[in-house]
Structures are given as structure tokens and as C-alpha cells.
Design brief:
heterotrimer, A alpha/beta (425), B alpha/beta (165), C alpha/beta (325), A: 425 residues, alpha/beta, Urease, subunit C, domain 1, TIM Barrel, 6-stranded mixed sheet, 6-stranded parallel sheet, 13 helices, globular, C: 325 residues, Rossmann fold, 4-stranded parallel sheet, 12 helices, 9 strands
Chain lengths: 425, 165, 325
């Protein structure tokens, strides 16, 4: 007794599946059949996926929900509702809430808030240092027990190299993954755009490429020293990609992700101080974008995330440097990734892998695949539907996106979490 | 269509009517552009000793808010102090009177003349302000859509144009 | 795009935010108009009624008595009513957003805002959010632009050196932080100057500066060789704190304009400075007060140029009439 998703093209890269196969889900919300109905199966509900793609629910490695502390921008409730319309069934939130996620109580609070809505699963990342201050370690074991899937100092730099070493060593002791936003804070020097042609012309303080590469170099040396498993978040420069590629070749336990927007936008999109393009790390040059795209193909970068940062309108209605950085990005995660397929950079299964089982592996969560026995977190989307991103179509409270008014091809029609249909277009 | 107006006749008439007024030692001022061309000839024919003043009234027009700046502004030049002097203000065509109003405002920003006598080559009806000339070369009757224009600067010629719709 | 933001639908200049996007023709129109305003400053009554009844608000979020005063003089010479607001001390420091400040002022029926702000892009942001009848002049936004300064500088060059096509121009000083330099560069490029150089230590040269169409030099000896115009920039003393230059003495030795350095330029080269000058830091008094300096005339020209910009922006949008007299 259960649910069947019929006649769709099932793409499940983790299990090497790509073809016309029906998906059978039992009453408890698990996959019990792929392609063939299990004996005695009676469908209580059928979803007609003719002409559509059926894939694992998307796993977003980084999305800010703004709760607790910044509820004027967005809340867990508003954002998980947006997430399911975007086919996202699992997401990670960074610990830079107010208060910071540096105690088990905070980690549990956020997860239980999310559970109440029975929509997208939220896996928090725990703070690497107390209060993200870069001085004292957090109780990583307790936080791990409380559900944190990794540890990070988010955007607060750990300037004391010794503290970073100790944090990595401690994480390595417990076999925990450290998520790094590698950037040298002094070279960043309060900049807000890529240090280059556009920044010079607009008179905006620039963040040199070296800020990222110096940060990556330092962290790679410490990873080698400590044997800590590390994931580099939000790579923005080609040079940094090359350094990570080298490290992977040498067998260091590192992985990396990139935001969907860094694969499409460059510093040129800032135009006349378009604050919607104010992001951290900054949008860099054409060569960097090309290198980031190539890294997806080569596997140096193994996940695409949204880096969702919803803002209230006032945050973007300020002179560029004073505007809040970040894009409301949940609802463009899949569409922007599909554009890479249209650009013939990736095949559809490759693209889906970067949004499902590969990020799932990075956080060590059992999701992102639809083999028999897997939890039925499913995304169904129509790859041909053309639609325009407008203030009206956005479900997130944040309307801060430079993609407003753009037409996309490919739209989520159904999202299931634990076998339950939580969204239907 | 060129009007069968004889500019020389008109000029001669102006010179005759101005001659009596020379006795209070006036200064001559021409309004750009046509008025200056006429004034230069009168200035020479009447043998004025002091140099000719020229006015560009662009900054004093009453339609600035509607039509904006004319980038071809020439500067006004009043080489002799107008304070307490009798002025002869020369223009080519007198129509609504607004140009003269602007010219008077500008003159008074330079000083307080003893009197201003208005001399125009062509007077046509259609006044919108209570301004009348003391010296006229020729009175002309024109339709509402007709404009008369003085061409120069070397050979002066009068042309009547139909205004575009 | 800036071009559309600065111009209205009929192609008339509506705001002046930056020189970027102004054609050579537009710039020359401004310079020609400014030329006609010079004479106004030489009359007994230095006023013309062009902007009578209009209200001009000097909205300075960043303090500057000089620039504010020249805008005030320019507006008053056009018979406009002028209000000065030093916003640092008032509402925005109480947390009122930039846009709310503007909206409150609009409610007081302002026709033109002259805005100076410490952040690049501030004037653009304001221009995007004001109604159609309100005009904005950027009096300096962060490091980005100071268009009236750029215009008065090219006006000065034209007056003293004539046509731009044969000129070699050098801009010396803190290019990295300078909105004046950026506007000067844009104006000179648009007017087709023969060669444009910037001279500064590497710490004060912005990344990819050649993309702006200039040749960077780090030594005065090479940078000034044979130039017709030397444009000095003011160095702010805080730059020493930021590890950008070591000391005033060293900066003056390497980049200060002394008579000896000026001798490297063309014999009849002119010396310019936007002011206020740091004598003995970026420029030697002998040069500042010397025969090649046009620094004082720059101030006079600044008033005429600002009058021209205000008149062009606030002028109507109709077709010039067929000459109803």
C-alpha cells in the first residue's frame, strides 16, 4: 500500500539509474521498488510524472534561515516552505545565527523548529569556536550528538593560526568534518567587490584574489599537518580551484563546493552598483567563472549550493558597500544548475549528482539517492516548462536576487518528504 | 519668399528718426543676433563715438523652464557704463515684446539708465506685453503662422517663413 | 545603465552622476555653456534669473566647506534658493536610512539635490529613487566620481591649452582612493586626449588601472617627461596609517611636485590641483604660486562649470521654440 510515481524519467546518479522507471514508495515513506512494482503492491496514490524528471530531493549545503535572531529578514517557517517549492528536501544551515549554534541546546532548537513544519530537513553546522570568536573550541562531540553534521566558523575568520590548527586537530580526533570559508581577513581589508577592472572603475574597495588563495594555502597546510577532513565552501577564484585540485591529487581529505550564482555571474554583472550582485565572496572575473565551471566537470568541486541569504528590502537599498551581501537563492538552485545542462557543460545526471548524493556524502547524511530502502525524499520537475522569476513567484521572504525578471526552463512540480507529498505546483 | 521690403529704405527711415535723439549723447545697444547686425550699421551711419554694446538675452528669457539652455549663448558685452546714460536699444523684429522685456531686465542688472529708446527694423503686430517702439524701419502685417527673419551678417536680407504646424 | 539614468527619455541631461556615459558632444556642450557664464562673475550684479524660484539643497553626508560653497555660489548666481544640510550631524546618524532622508526633503519641494557621500554609488542609488522632476548632481561619492571637478578640470585645460588631441596629461598622486582622478580620466578620454598617464607608487595605483585607458608610471621622472598638463592630487595624511606610504618626507621626495620635477615637463606645461593643497607634501609652494600654476583660476572656473551643469539639468525638456519674439 503506498504511492507510485509513474512514467517519469528516473535519474538517480548514486545508483546509476537513468531511464523510464516507476518509483514505488511504501506507507512508511521508504522506497520499496524501482522500475517494477513489488509483489502485492497497491497504490493508494499515483503521481503522473509523464514528461518529467524524477530524482532524489535536492540537498543544499548552505542556506541561511535567519532564525533565531534575524527574523525581520526571514524565518524557518517561511524558508522551508520556499525550499520545498524548489525541490530541496534537505539543507544545512550555518551556525551564525543569533545566538550562535555553539551549544547542543541551540542545535536541537533549530532542528525541532524545523520538524514542526514537517517539510525540509534542516541539519545544522556547529560553530567551530565558541561564539565564532576564533579563540576557544566548542564541545564538538556534544554538538555532533545533537545533530550537527559539520563544524565551521562561517564568515568569521580564525586569525590565530594556532587556534585553527587545534580546532582541526580536535575535529580530526572525533572524525568530524570542518567547513572552511578560506579568506585572509587583512587582505580582504573591508572590500566588497573583486579587486579588478570593475572595482577600479566603480571606486569600490576590492578583495584581491590573494585573499582567497592565501586563506586556502594556510588551511591546506594545516589540513595536511592535522589530517582533518575539510570542505572548502564557496570557492570564487580559479587559482583557489587549482590549489584544491592539487591537494586532492596529493590525497588530502578535502572537498569543495560552489554557489549556483558564481557559475553564472561575474563582476561585470554589478553594472552600475547593482546591490543584488553584492555577495561574499565577491563575483570575480570571466576566467574565474570558467575555472569554476570546469572544476564541476573534473570533480574538483563536488557540490553546488545555494548559499541562500534572504534580506529585507532595506538591506539592499543602500550604497553598495553598505548593502547586505547575499542572494535569496533557494528557488534558483535547480534552475541555474539546469542552465549548465543547457550550456552543455554537464549532462543531466551529472548535474543532479551535484545537487543530491554528492553533497549528501559531504555531510555524511543518508539521503540523496533513491535505491530500495532509501527514505522517499523525491523531487519531480518538468524540464521543459518555461517560467519567469518574479516577486509573485518567489515563496521565500527574501526577494533579493539579481535573477528577478529572468526566464528559466525547468520547474519543480512535486516534492515528497518521507513519502509524503509536501508540495505540488 | 523674400519680402519686397527695401532694407535700405527701412534703415534710412531709422537713421532719420534717430538723428534728433543724438543730442542727449546716447549709447547704442544691439540685441543678438539680428539686432546687433542692424545696430552695427546704424552705429556706423550715425557715427557713434563710443563702442556698440551687445546683449544676449538667453539668460533672461521667460521660457527657460520650458525649453532649457541654448548652448549657443554669446556673451553680453556692455563696454560703457550704462548708469545715467540714455540708451538706444536696437532689435531686428518686434513681435510679442518678450525679448525686449528680457533685454530691459538685463540692462537694469548692469545699472540704471536715464532712458531707453526702442528702435526696431521691422515692427509686426502680435504684442503680448505693453511694449512699443519709438523708432521703426517698417511696419509689416503678417498672418499668425508667418514669421519674418533677418538674414546676415554681410548682406542683410528679410525672409518671411511659414511656421511649421 | 548609467547612460539611461543620467538622461531623460528625450535625451536631455537630467542628473549628473558621473562623466562615464557622457558623449564628447555632451561634455563640450557643458564646457561651452560654462564659458558663457564666466562673464556673469565679472559683472557688477553677478546674478541671472535662470533658476529663480527653484530650490537647491546641498546634501552633504561628507563634510566639505569648499565644494559646498562653490555649489552655493553657483546656485545663487542663478537666483536659486539654496539650503545647506550637513547630514552627518542630523537624521542619518540617528539611524534614518539614506532614502528616508531624501524622501523627507522631497516633501519640502526640492528641485535639485547636490549630494556628497562617503560611499561609492550613493548618488546613483538616490537618482534611482527620486521622482521625475527632481534632479541630482553628484558632488563626490566615495572613490567613484566627482564629475563637476572633472569637468572644471577639462574646462581649465581647454582655456589654457586649447585642443585636446595633441595633449599629454599626467595625473599624479593617490589614484587608488581618488574620485577626482577617475572623473578626470573619463573626461580626458572622452575628449580624445593624446596621452594620459597616472603617476603613483604601486600602493596607490588601483588594480587593472590600464583598463581605464591610462599608462601607469611609478616614477615622476618618466611620468612627467614632456607632458603638457600636470594634475596633482591631494594626499590624505591618513594614508600613512594604512601602510600605503611610509612618511610625508619620502612621499614628497618621490612624488612631490618641485620646480626641478616640473622642469621635466614641457616648458609651457600648466600645473593644476583640485584643492585644498598640502604644501610641502604633494606640491612645493614655489610651484603652487609659480607662473605655470592655474590653481586659482580653477576655482573661478569651478563656479561657472557648476552653473552650467545646474542650468543644463534644470532647463526644460521641450524643443527650442522657433524664436517667438
Amino acid at each position: 500500500m503506498g504511492l507510485v510515481i509513474k512514467s517519469g524519467r528516473l535519474i538517480d546518479p548514486a545508483n546509476g539509474v537513468d531511464g523510464q522507471k516507476d518509483l514505488y514508495i511504501d506507507d512508511n515513506g521508504f522506497v520499496i521498488g524501482v522500475g517494477k512494482a513489488p509483489p502485492g503492491f497497491k497504490a493508494k496514490k499515483t503521481i503522473d510524472a509523464r514528461g518529467k524528471i524524477v530524482c532524489p530531493g535536492l540537498v543544499d549545503l548552505r542556506a541561511r534561515l535567519r532564525e533565531p535572531g534575524l527574523e525581520h529578514k526571514a524565518t524557518i517557517e517561511s524558508e522551508v516552505h520556499a525550499a520545498v517549492t524548489a525541490g530541496i528536501t534537505t539543507l544545512c544551515c550555518p551556525p551564525d545565527t543569533h545566538p550562535v549554534i555553539d551549544t547542543p541546546a541551540m542545535a536541537q532548537m533549530i532542528q525541532s523548529r524545523a520538524w514542526r513544519f514537517e517539510l525540509t530537513f534542516i541539519h545544522p553546522l556547529g560553530a567551530l569556536t565558541q561564539g565564532l570568536e576564533g579563540k576557544r573550541l566548542t564541545d564538538m562531540e556534544a554538538l555532533d550528538e545533537a545533530g550537527c553534521v559539520g563544524f565551521t566558523n562561517a564568515l568569521a575568520p580564525i586569525t590565530d593560526t594556532l587556534v585553527m590548527r587545534r580546532a582541526m586537530e580536535y575535529a580530526a580526533t572525533l572524525d568530524l568534518t570542518v567547513f572552511l570559508h578560506a579568506e585572509d581577513p587583512w587582505l580582504r581589508d573591508g572590500g566588497c567587490v573583486h579587486e579588478g577592472e570593475i572595482g577600479t572603475r566603480l571606486g569600490l574597495a576590492g578583495i584581491p584574489e590573494a585573499a582567497e588563495t592565501v586563506g586556502v594555502a594556510r588551511d591546506l597546510a594545516l589540513i595536511e599537518q592535522t589530517g582533518c577532513r575539510a570542505h572548502f565552501c564557496n570557492l570564487s577564484s580559479g587559482r583557489a580551484v587549482a590549489m584544491i585540485a592539487e591537494a586532492i591529487r596529493h590525497g588530502l581529505p578535502v572537498s569543495a563546493d560552489v554557489t549556483a550564482h558564481h557559475l553564472h555571474l561575474t563582476e561585470h554583472d554589478i553594472g552600475d552598483f547593482n546591490t543584488q550582485c553584492h555577495v561574499q565572496p565577491p563575483l570575480r572575473g570571466m576566467r574565474d567563472r570558467k575555472a569554476l565551471r570546469k572544476a564541476l566537470k573534473s570533480g574538483v568541486i563536488s557540490a553546488i549550493c545555494s548559499d541562500h541569504q534572504p534580506h529585507e528590502p532595506d538591506a539592499k537599498l543602500a550604497p553598495f558597500a553598505q548593502s547586505g551581501p547575499g542572494i535569496s537563492a533557494l528557488e534558483t538552485l535547480l534552475p541555474l544548475t539546469l542552465r549548465l545542462v543547457d550550456d552543455k557543460l554537464l549532462t543531466l545526471p551529472e548535474a543532479i549528482a551535484l545537487l543530491t548524493h554528492k553533497p549528501a556524502e559531504i555531510i555524511g547524511v543518508d539521503t540523496g539517492q533513491l535505491g530500495v530502502g532509501a527514505t522517499a525524499d523525491v523531487c519531480v520537475f518538468d524540464p521543459e516548462t518555461r517560467w519567469t522569476l518574479t516577486e509573485n513567484t518567489l515563496v521565500s521572504r527574501g526577494h533579493n536576487t539579481p535573477f528577478l525578471g529572468q526566464e528559466f526552463r525547468g520547474r519543480v512540480t512535486h516534492t515528497l518528504i518521507g513519502g509524503k507529498l509536501v508540495f505540488e505546483l | 519668399m523674400t519680402v519686397a521690403l527695401d532694407i535700405d529704405t527701412a534703415m534710412t527711415r531709422m537713421v532719420e528718426e534717430l538723428r534728433p535723439r543724438l543730442k542727449n549723447d546716447p549709447l547704442m545697444v544691439g540685441i543678438h543676433t539680428g539686432g546687433v547686425w542692424v545696430a552695427e550699421r546704424l552705429h556706423r551711419l550715425l557715427e557713434f563715438k563710443e563702442p556698440l554694446g551687445t546683449l544676449d538675452i538667453s539668460f533672461y528669457r521667460d521660457d527657460f523652464t520650458r525649453i532649457g539652455m541654448n548652448p549657443q549663448v554669446r556673451t553680453s558685452h556692455l563696454p560703457v557704463n550704462v548708469e545715467n546714460r540714455h540708451l538706444i536699444l536696437v532689435d531686428d523684429v518686434l513681435h510679442t515684446g518678450r525679448t525686449i522685456r528680457a533685454a530691459l531686465n538685463e540692462i537694469f542688472d548692469y545699472g540704471r539708465p536715464a532712458s531707453v529708446t526702442l528702435a526696431c527694423l521691422i515692427e509686426r503686430g502680435g504684442r503680448e506685453l505693453p511694449i512699443e517702439p519709438q523708432v521703426v524701419g517698417e511696419h509689416v502685417k503678417l498672418g499668425k503662422n508667418q514669421h519674418v527673419k533677418l538674414l546676415g551678417p554681410d548682406k542683410l536680407e528679410l525672409r518671411i517663413q511659414e511656421a511649421n504646424g | 545603465m548609467t547612460q539611461n539614468l543620467q538622461f531623460d527619455d528625450a535625451g536631455r541631461l537630467r542628473h549628473l552622476l558621473t562623466i562615464e556615459g557622457l558623449s564628447r558632444k555632451s561634455i563640450l556642450e557643458i564646457l561651452d555653456t560654462a564659458e558663457s557664464f564666466i562673464s556673469v562673475g565679472q559683472r557688477e550684479i553677478k546674478k541671472i534669473p535662470l533658476l529663480r524660484g527653484k530650490t537647491v539643497v546641498n546634501l552633504f553626508f561628507e563634510s566639505s566647506t569648499r565644494t559646498r560653497t562653490t555649489f552655493e555660489i553657483a546656485a545663487k548666481r542663478l537666483s536659486a534658493d539654496v539650503i545647506n544640510l550637513n547630514v552627518g550631524a542630523s537624521s542619518t546618524s540617528k539611524g534614518e536610512t539614506l532614502l528616508d532622508t531624501i524622501r523627507n526633503l522631497e516633501a519640502m519641494h526640492t528641485d535639485l539635490f547636490v549630494v556628497r557621500h562617503a560611499e561609492s554609488g550613493a548618488a546613483h542609488m538616490i537618482a534611482r529613487h527620486v521622482p521625475a522632476h527632481v534632479h541630482i548632481i553628484n558632488a563626490g561619492d566615495g572613490r567613484h566620481a566627482h564629475p563637476t571637478q572633472g569637468l572644471l578640470d577639462v574646462f581649465t585645460i581647454r582655456r589654457h591649452k586649447g585642443a585636446f588631441g595633441k595633449l599629454k596629461v599626467a595625473i599624479v598622486g593617490d589614484i587608488l582612493h581618488s574620485r577626482v582622478a577617475r572623473s578626470q580620466i573619463q573626461a580626458l578620454k572622452a575628449l580624445g586626449v593624446a596621452e594620459l598617464r597616472v603617476v603613483a607608487p604601486k600602493t596607490l595605483l588601483p588594480m587593472a588601472v590600464e583598463k581605464l585607458g591610462v599608462h601607469p608610471y611609478t616614477r615622476m621622472e618618466e611620468g612627467l617627461d614632456g607632458v603638457d598638463v600636470v594634475m596633482m592630487l591631494r594626499l590624505q595624511r591618513e594614508r600613512m596609517q594604512g601602510a600605503l606610504i611610509p612618511s610625508e618626507q619620502e612621499y614628497f621626495n618621490l612624488y612631490g611636485l618641485t620646480p626641478a620635477k616640473l622642469a621635466l615637463a614641457a616648458k609651457d606645461a600648466i600645473v593644476m590641483h583640485p584643492g585644498p593643497m598640502n604644501r610641502g607634501l604633494e606640491i612645493d609652494s614655489a610651484v603652487a604660486d609659480g607662473p605655470q600654476s592655474v590653481i586659482l583660476p580653477q576655482v573661478t572656473y569651478g563656479i561657472a562649470v557648476r552653473m552650467a551643469v545646474m542650468a543644463l539639468i534644470m532647463g526644460g525638456s521641450g524643443e527650442p521654440a522657433g524664436g517667438r519674439r
